């Protein structure tokens, strides 16, 4: 009997049409092909032409179909009819919703704009939302960066003009040694996976530094299971070893950094520790050739790393002298730090040796001629094939800012930033801190704020303080408590507003910020604050407006709901003014557009803001005759100009769509993006792709692209002078002085050269286990919790314990444990994990959900077994007995110190469900269907 192959259709028709847009399932912003059949989404795949992912797509991206069809989607605007928190709402029209919002907000704008606190979550449109808040006139605006990764971003900008991920990337094609610190699996996941694949294929070495060995660390050649909060100490020990061995790039330090810049070294001087500058404010160095004092950027100058200069009885010494004194001391020897870091001294020395060997012994040259900012012509580019990457793991500690700065200094002394094989900036970076705006806070009733809310302070004179010294902002950003809080302190908004510290607000307006659950420290306390009433029975926070696409835990606490669309039903702008999709070799931005129309009464939040801005008569949102200026967000994207010729999108500008970077508004611009796959790319010329801060060709290209208005070459700041200015104030110099109770903290933490200090907060005695969360690759924050496909990967989360701790506590897989902190306790299932720092436990982030939220079944595993560590964390540090409210934040930037949590663990009997169990909330959306399936056509 002969075998016959049954007929198979090996190329079935997947779709009738393919629509190309940008993914929204995490912050990668990958390009996707959305296959349509019969007008519905049938299939999502990666766009092979897209600069971010080049066709690669993760489980989250493919599962966007289920996000789009989620039963948790909100259906219509709603106003609260029951008690706040009850989830009892009445459906209303958009006309009524916008009128309610206008009636609440118009009096505030006329009389006290600061009484509006407008804070947004992970919306990726902060350029627009910030502009709206500025036109309203409130100083109280920020986004989620203050509780996410402001330490990383701010430390990078103050040190070298950019940082990791959205600011830059490793040179994947030339790196031979890649070292990553504290990188979660969901951030930038597709580009990192693609890059790691390149490294593995070429035989490059990967070192992962993380208390937890999962994801990227699991495939690292060398895993360093560091004790949480000690990364900075470990990095400074590496710097010690490299400097002591002389394995640093002296030529690079002299040419491109402030290492040769002269500092006042007289402790009696009010300028002690400040740069010596000329009349134009340019830093001064000694020229090795002439021995004379000269500005750093003069043609032909060869800055001297060793020479000193004496003037008016004061000796001025180069920054490099300060570095040698600070980092060659005994405090940073491997033997001195090993026990605290959990890394043996020989291993620290071996890693330092390997960094040096690859950086210098495997250095190479690229045959690319270039001219630097001093006019010197170079025939080649020196490559140092060592690169680094880091994210929230080192950032979310009270010492995270200085730790991130230390990592940047480590890169710089090896000469591996903006060179072949090293770390490379993505346009619009590099930009030094001085090229960014300073924060603005002048409130004028009935008028816009005097400038952008967020920025980079250069000294005490830039703080957001009232004449009496009290904070101008509700979150206390840019105050002596956290002077350099470039992203604000979103985690402190509700707590401060409830306490009336520094003042009461009238309306809390939030977008996509799940502050009653996983986005908040102390969710139980926050829920009480949101529902608390005063002696007259009125809510302490009088009004709450909230916008979200889904029935999240926060929805129940709003008085007015403005329902957002899903990402496949909206316009979005991934802009060079905000968080673009650039690569190191090109400037790039992108759009989202409605590949399908909503089947519910919802609007994209940005479009709703255009409508609300017009009803409020906000300048910038109305024409001279008072009519609405932008009919929706797409109209804003197309026609808004931040300055002449510069708008949200850089591509296809000009009336004929042929200009890039600068040009008149093009009415067909969005259509041009759609035809091009949803993105625009402009490549950097070959000779301009490295040495960007100092490369004249890059600077000229950047001006043409409107990244700068004129060339902006600068030196990397190993020594961050703004920090020294705050120290000087704490020492009693200057007109603007800190409160006495903060003087010592400022002097200790705000060191101009990176330092390390213990981040273990007061009041944790007896709690000796570090507790962390980590985001899984298949989930992004809490967004996937209602996604039928992704829930199959992470339906609930155990607490992972190291082997020795499991044995000590008599625990086995599936047992339950009571986990407590100074703030609270939870009861959760546990599992053993060997590849874990012995002093650390961890769990997946944001898997646990509250009953009634997200249209989940009442016995869903997310609500019966899932849990949050958030219940153990508080936005305030334990009381010190001084009557003050001390934020659980980095004292420099105000970043939430999520990862400073310490706990104790006890075995307990298994409860029916994980604890605490918050009573169910009523959902404004129908119960979920019994089965969720999605199939389009045959």
From TrEMBL:
GO terms for cellular component: cell envelope. GO terms for molecular function: 4 iron, 4 sulfur cluster binding; metal ion binding; molybdopterin cofactor binding; oxidoreductase activity. Residues 909-938 are annotated as: Disordered. Belongs to the prokaryotic molybdopterin-containing oxidoreductase family. Residues 917-930 have a biased composition (Pro residues). Residues 16-72 form the 4Fe-4S Mo/W bis-MGD-type domain. InterPro entries: Asp_de-COase-like_dom_sf (IPR009010), MoPterin_dinucl-bd_dom (IPR006657), Mopterin_OxRdtase (IPR006656), Mopterin_OxRdtase_4Fe-4S_dom (IPR006963). PANTHER family: DMSO REDUCTASE CHAIN A (PTHR43598:SF5), TUNGSTEN-CONTAINING FORMYLMETHANOFURAN DEHYDROGENASE 2 SUBUNIT B (PTHR43598). It is found in: Cell envelope. Its main location: other. This is Anaerobic selenocysteine-containing dehydrogenase. Its cofactor is [4Fe-4S] cluster. The keyword Iron applies. The lineage of its organism: Bacteria, Pseudomonadati, Pseudomonadota, Alphaproteobacteria, Rhodobacterales. Signal peptide: none annotated. Keywords: 4Fe-4S, Iron, Iron-sulfur, Metal-binding, Oxidoreductase.
């Amino acid at each position: 009997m002969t075998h016959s192959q049954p007929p198979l259709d090996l190329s079935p028709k997947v779709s009738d049409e393919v629509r190309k847009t940008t993914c929204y399932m995490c912050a990668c912003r990958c390009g996707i092909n959305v296959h349509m059949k019969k007008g519905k989404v049938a299939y999502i795949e990666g766009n092979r032409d897209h600069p971010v992912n080049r066709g690669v797509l993760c489980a989250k991206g493919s599962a966007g179909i289920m996000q789009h069809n989620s039963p948790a989607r909100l259906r219509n605007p709603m106003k609260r009819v029951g008690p706040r928190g009850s989830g009892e709402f009445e459906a209303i029209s958009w006309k009524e919703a916008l009128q309610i919002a206008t009636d609440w907000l118009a009096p505030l704008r006329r009389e006290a704009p600061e009484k509006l606190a407008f804070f947004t979550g992970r919306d990726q449109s902060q350029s627009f939302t910030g502009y709206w808040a500025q036109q309203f006139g409130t100083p109280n605006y920020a986004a989620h960066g203050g509780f996410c990764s402001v330490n990383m971003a701010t430390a990078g900008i103050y040190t070298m003009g950019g940082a990791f991920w959205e600011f830059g990337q490793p040179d994947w094609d030339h790196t031979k040694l890649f070292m990553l610190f504290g990188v979660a699996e969901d951030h930038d996941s597709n580009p990192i996976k693609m890059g790691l694949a390149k490294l593995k294929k070429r035989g490059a070495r990967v070192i992962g530094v993380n208390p937890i060995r999962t994801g990227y660390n699991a495939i690292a050649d060398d895993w360093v299971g560091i004790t949480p909060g000690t990364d900075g100490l470990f990095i400074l020990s590496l710097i010690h070893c490299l400097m002591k061995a002389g394995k640093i790039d002296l030529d690079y330090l002299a040419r491109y950094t402030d290492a040769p810049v002269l500092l006042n070294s007289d402790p009696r001087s009010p300028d002690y520790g400040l740069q010596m500058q000329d009349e134009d404010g340019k830093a001064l160095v000694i020229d090795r050739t002439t021995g004379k004092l000269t500005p750093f950027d003069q043609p032909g100058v060869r800055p001297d790393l060793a020479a000193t200069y004496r003037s008016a009885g004061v000796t001025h010494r180069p920054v490099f002298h300060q570095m040698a004194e600070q980092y060659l001391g005994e405090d940073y020897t491997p033997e001195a730090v090993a026990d605290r870091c959990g890394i043996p001294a020989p291993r620290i020395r071996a890693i330092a040796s390997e960094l040096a060997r690859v950086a210098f012994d495997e250095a190479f040259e690229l045959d690319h001629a270039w001219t630097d900012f001093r006019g010197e012509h170079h025939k080649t580019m020196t490559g140092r094939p060592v690169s680094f990457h880091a994210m929230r793991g080192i950032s979310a500690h009270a010492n995270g800012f200085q730790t991130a700065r230390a990592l940047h200094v480590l890169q710089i002394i090896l000469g591996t930033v903006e060179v072949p094989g090293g770390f490379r900036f993505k346009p619009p970076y590099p930009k030094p801190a001085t090229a960014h705006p300073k924060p603005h806070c002048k409130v004028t009733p009935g008028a816009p704020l005097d400038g952008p809310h967020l920025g980079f302070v250069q000294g005490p004179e830039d703080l957001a303080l009232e004449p009496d010294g009290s904070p101008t902002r509700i979150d206390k950003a840019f105050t002596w408590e956290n002077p350099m809080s470039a992203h604000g302190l979103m985690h402190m908004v509700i707590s401060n507003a409830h306490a009336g510290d520094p003042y009461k607000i009238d309306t809390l307006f939030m977008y996509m910020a799940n502050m009653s659950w996983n986005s908040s420290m102390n969710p139980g306390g926050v829920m009480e604050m949101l529902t608390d009433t005063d002696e007259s029975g009125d809510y302490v926070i009088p009004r709450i407006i909230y916008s979200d696409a889904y029935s999240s835990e926060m929805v129940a606490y709003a008085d007015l709901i403005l329902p957002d669309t899903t990402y496949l039903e909206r316009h979005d702008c991934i802009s060079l003014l905000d968080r673009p999709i650039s690569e190191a070799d090109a400037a790039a931005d992108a759009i989202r557009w409605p590949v399908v129309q909503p089947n519910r009464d919802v609007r994209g939040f940005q479009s709703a803001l255009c409508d609300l801005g017009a009803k409020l008569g906000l300048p910038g949102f109305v024409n001279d005759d008072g009519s609405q200026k932008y009919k929706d967000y797409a109209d804003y994207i197309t026609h808004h100009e931040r300055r002449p010729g510069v708008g949200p999108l850089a591509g296809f500008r000009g009336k004929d769509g042929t200009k890039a970077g600068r040009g008149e508004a093009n009415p067909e611009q969005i259509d041009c993006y759609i035809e091009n796959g949803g993105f625009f790319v402009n490549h950097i010329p070959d000779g301009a792709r490295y040495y960007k801060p100092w490369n004249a060709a890059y600077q000229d290209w950047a001006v043409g692209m409107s990244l700068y208005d004129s060339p902006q070459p600068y030196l990397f700041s190993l020594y961050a002078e703004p920090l020294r200015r705050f120290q000087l104030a704490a020492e009693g110099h200057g007109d603007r002085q800190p409160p006495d109770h903060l003087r010592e903290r400022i002097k200790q933490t705000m060191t101009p050269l990176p330092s390390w200090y213990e981040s273990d907060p007061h009041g944790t005695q007896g709690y000796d286990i570090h507790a962390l969360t980590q985001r899984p690759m298949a989930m992004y924050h809490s967004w996937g919790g209602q996604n039928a496909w992704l829930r199959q990967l992470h339906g609930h989360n155990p607490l992972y314990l190291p082997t020795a701790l499991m044995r000590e506590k008599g625990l086995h897989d599936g047992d339950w444990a009571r986990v407590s902190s100074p703030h609270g306790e939870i009861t959760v299932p546990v599992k053993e994990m060997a590849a874990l720092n012995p002093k650390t436990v961890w769990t997946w982030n944001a898997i646990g959900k509250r009953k009634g939220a997200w249209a989940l079944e009442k016995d869903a595993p997310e609500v019966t077994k899932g849990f949050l560590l958030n219940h153990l964390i508080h936005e305030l540090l334990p009381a010190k007995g001084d009557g003050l409210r001390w934020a659980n934040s980095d004292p420099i930037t105000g970043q939430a110190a999520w990862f400073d949590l310490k706990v104790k663990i006890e075995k307990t009997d298994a409860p029916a469900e994980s604890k605490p169990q918050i009573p169910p909330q009523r959902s404004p959306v129908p119960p979920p269907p019994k089965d969720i399936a999605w199939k389009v056509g045959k």
